[in-house]
């Protein structure tokens, strides 16, 4: 019986091609926009979380936030000894630490003048970053210890400064701690980011280079009042928060400050906040898109009511030939469900294909979750059945005598 | 059970709210299995009301209607649907074939509701269409056929579930005289093969094909006469022998 009804429903839809298509269009647009918006939301979430992962999810930056009037003291600087002490105290829990130092200035090469940002990095910094060394090498422990004037630069920086990505062995001069120094390029790194990710990260005009973190210890020549730390990679959520708290507590005691004198920017916590926010936005947008699905459903109900009136005689005839109320109900219900299901399927195909094409053009892989697709299919079937019930009941309850008399 | 139809003190009152209209007033009637009967009367005579009740499309207000030995007066709508499906073959004035469906599919409809398998249905429908002389047109749609041909399809459809009763409502009302003759000869042939056929008509020449003529007036059975000399049927009517 269901198979028969399906065949009849498809025959009825084929008989009124244009009308069926226009009715489906509401569902196509509804389902399509739900899928597209949820996919955009999920893709943005992935982009943002990948940006955070580039930074390292267990990374925290500690800044001073001195409460008393005396302000900044000389003893607040983080010296080489401080760093060594913290390493010893926290052991394996503290996977990485430096003084979060950087310096930027103009570098003149044959290619012209470029603003270069030098960032301090310890030899194991590369373990926490997603960039790849494409030629040369990263810093060795002795580079750090002996404060060698060496730099690892981004491939795009190399291109701007030297006109080639293959710039290992080249040198450039930049002012550091008051004196002009010559740095030897010992390695080139590549950060793999899509244009869309770049858009989210903002457009930074300066080019990036890493130099040994030992240049940025607090001493007579330079100040260092901030720390960059990475907790053990396995730390997450509460465990990470507890570690950060312990760290600040110890730091404050060590520097003869109060715990409140420092504040900590915790990448992991920020990431989960942003992710939660984006998730909420995504659900809200999907909900708004679902309203168009409602409109599509009303379209189905409308056309089914027209169809029931048009086919009054058919209903009367079928009843005279032995169709029960349930038979007629099923027939019309299946017809509206079929409209909705076909519309939903087309909507999913169009939205997925469209998103994939846009993603390919932007070189950004698109996230289309199977759960979202299944939900959309289910929802469109529910819409078809829900909005089909009233017209189908109307058809099923009609009096066969009146239907047969209908002109 | 010799009688296919027994009506006992059958009354139908239409309640239109303000006034009550007496559609049928105490009808007592029986029709034997294998009879060929005409129901005549002018409009408003009650013949359509009687047809609706005989066809189980409507229920009597009072009295009993035994169809094939079963009282159908108090059945629910869905029970009546099943009775119509199994026991009654309808032929309508305006054919009431379903457009957008082939002739073959149309004949299959009653068998679909009888839950017959697809292969059996198709075979039976094709056989029936062959019997009414439309074997070559089973894949045509109704609007590609003449009125007479459409009514033949409707007759094939009426026979689909081998019902004990064929009910025809003005079956020649929309046909020219040539087609009318063909259709009435087809009914006569069905009767010869053992079917019970009841034809509602207001035309005397149509009623003359039958063997018993019931005339209604103002909701009452006015006369019930045996037609001694039914219109003879030519032998070239294409209907093979049917088991009934």
From TrEMBL, chain A:
One of its GO terms (cellular component) is plasma membrane. The keyword Transmembrane helix applies. Residues 20-215 form the MacB-like periplasmic core domain. Keywords: Cell membrane, Membrane, Transmembrane, Transmembrane helix. Pfam families: FtsX, MacB_PCD. It comes from the Bacteria. Residues 288-400 form the ABC3 transporter permease C-terminal domain. This is ABC3 transporter permease protein domain-containing protein. It comes from Johnsonella ignava ATCC 51276. The lineage of its organism: Bacteria, Bacillati, Bacillota, Clostridia, Lachnospirales.
UniProtKB/TrEMBL annotation, chain B:
Belongs to the ABC transporter superfamily. The lineage of its organism: Bacteria, Bacillati, Bacillota, Clostridia, Lachnospirales. PANTHER family: CELL DIVISION ATP-BINDING PROTEIN FTSE, LIPOPROTEIN-RELEASING SYSTEM ATP-BINDING PROTEIN LOLD. This is ABC transporter domain-containing protein. One of its GO terms (molecular function) is transmembrane transporter activity. InterPro entries: AAA+_ATPase, ABC_transporter-like_ATP-bd, ABC_transporter-like_CS, MacB-like_ATP-bd, P-loop_NTPase. Gene3D superfamilies: P-loop containing nucleotide triphosphate hydrolases (3.40.50.300). GO terms for cellular component: membrane protein complex. It comes from Johnsonella ignava ATCC 51276. Residues 5-243 form the ABC transporter domain. Residues 224-244 are annotated as: Disordered. It holds the Pfam family ABC_tran. Keywords: ATP-binding, Nucleotide-binding, Transport.
């Amino acid at each position: 019986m269901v198979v028969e009804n399906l065949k009849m429903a498809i025959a009825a839809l084929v008989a009124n091609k244009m009308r069926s298509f226009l009715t489906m269009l509401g569902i196509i647009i509804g389902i399509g926009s739900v899928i597209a918006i949820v996919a955009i939301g999920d893709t943005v979430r992935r982009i943002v979380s990948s940006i955070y992962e580039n930074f390292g999810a267990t990374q925290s930056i500690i800044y001073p936030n001195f409460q008393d009037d005396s302000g900044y003291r000389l003893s607040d600087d983080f010296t080489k000894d401080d760093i060594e002490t913290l390493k010893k105290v926290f052991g394996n829990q503290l996977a990485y630490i430096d003084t979060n130092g950087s310096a930027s200035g103009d570098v003149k090469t044959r290619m012209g003048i470029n603003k270069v940002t030098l960032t301090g990095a310890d030899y194991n910094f590369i373990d926490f970053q997603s960039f790849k060394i494409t030629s040369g090498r990263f810093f060795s422990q002795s580079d750090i210890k002996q404060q060698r004037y060496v730099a690892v630069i981004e491939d795009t920086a190399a291109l701007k400064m030297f006109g080639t990505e293959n710039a290992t062995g080249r040198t450039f001069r930049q002012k550091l701690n008051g004196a002009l120094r010559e740095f030897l390029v010992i390695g080139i790194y590549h950060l793999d980011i899509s244009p869309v990710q770049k858009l989210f990260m903002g457009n930074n005009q300066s080019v990036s280079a890493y130099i040994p973190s030992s240049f940025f210890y607090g001493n007579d020549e330079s100040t260092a009042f901030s720390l960059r730390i990475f907790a053990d990679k396995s730390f997450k959520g509460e465990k990470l928060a507890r570690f950060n708290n312990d760290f600040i507590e110890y730091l404050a005691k060590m520097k003869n400050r109060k715990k409140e004198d420092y504040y900590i920017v915790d990448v992991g916590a920020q990431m989960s906040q942003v992710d939660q926010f984006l998730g909420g936005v995504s659900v809200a947008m999907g909900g708004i898109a679902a309203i168009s699905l409602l409109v599509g459903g009303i379209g189905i109900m409308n056309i089914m009511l027209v169809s029931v009136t048009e086919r009054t005689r058919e209903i009367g005839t079928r009843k005279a030939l032995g169709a029960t109320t349930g038979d007629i109900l099923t027939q019309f219900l299946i017809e509206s469900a079929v409209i909705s299901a076909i519309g939903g399927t087309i909507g999913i195909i169009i939205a997925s294909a469209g998103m994939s094409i846009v993603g390919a053009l932007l070189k950004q892989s698109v996230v289309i979750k199977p759960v979202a697709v299944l939900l959309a299919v289910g929802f469109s079937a529910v819409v078809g059945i829900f909005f089909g019930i009233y017209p189908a009941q109307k058809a099923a309850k009609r009096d066969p005598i009146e239907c047969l008399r209908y002109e | 059970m010799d009688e296919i139809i027994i009506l006992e003190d059958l009354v139908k009152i239409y309640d239109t709210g303000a006034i009550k209209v007496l559609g049928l007033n105490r009808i007592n009637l029986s029709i034997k299995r294998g009879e060929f009967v005409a129901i005549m009367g002018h409009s408003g005579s009650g013949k359509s009301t009687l047809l609706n009740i005989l066809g189980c499309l409507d229920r009597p207000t009072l009295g009993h209607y035994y169809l094939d030995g079963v009282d159908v007066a108090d059945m629910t709508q869905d029970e009546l649907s099943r009775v119509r499906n199994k026991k009654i073959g309808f032929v309508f004035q305006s054919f009431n074939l379903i457009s957008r469906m082939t002739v073959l599919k149309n004949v299959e409809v009653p068998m679909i509701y009888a839950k017959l398998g697809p292969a059996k249905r198709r075979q039976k429908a094709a056989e029936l269409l062959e019997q009414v002389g439309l074997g070559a047109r089973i894949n045509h749609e109704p609007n590609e056929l003449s009125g007479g041909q459409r009514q033949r399809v409707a007759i094939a459809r009426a026979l689909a579930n081998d019902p004990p009763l064929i009910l025809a409502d003005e079956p020649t009302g929309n046909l020219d005289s040539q087609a009318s003759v063909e259709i009435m000869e087809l009914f006569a042939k069905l009767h010869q093969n053992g079917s019970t056929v009841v034809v509602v008509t207001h035309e005397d020449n149509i009623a003359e094909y039958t063997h018993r003529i019931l005339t209604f007036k103002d909701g009452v059975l006015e006369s019930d006469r045996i037609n001694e000399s039914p219109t003879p049927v030519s032998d070239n009517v294409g209907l093979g022998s049917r088991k009934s």
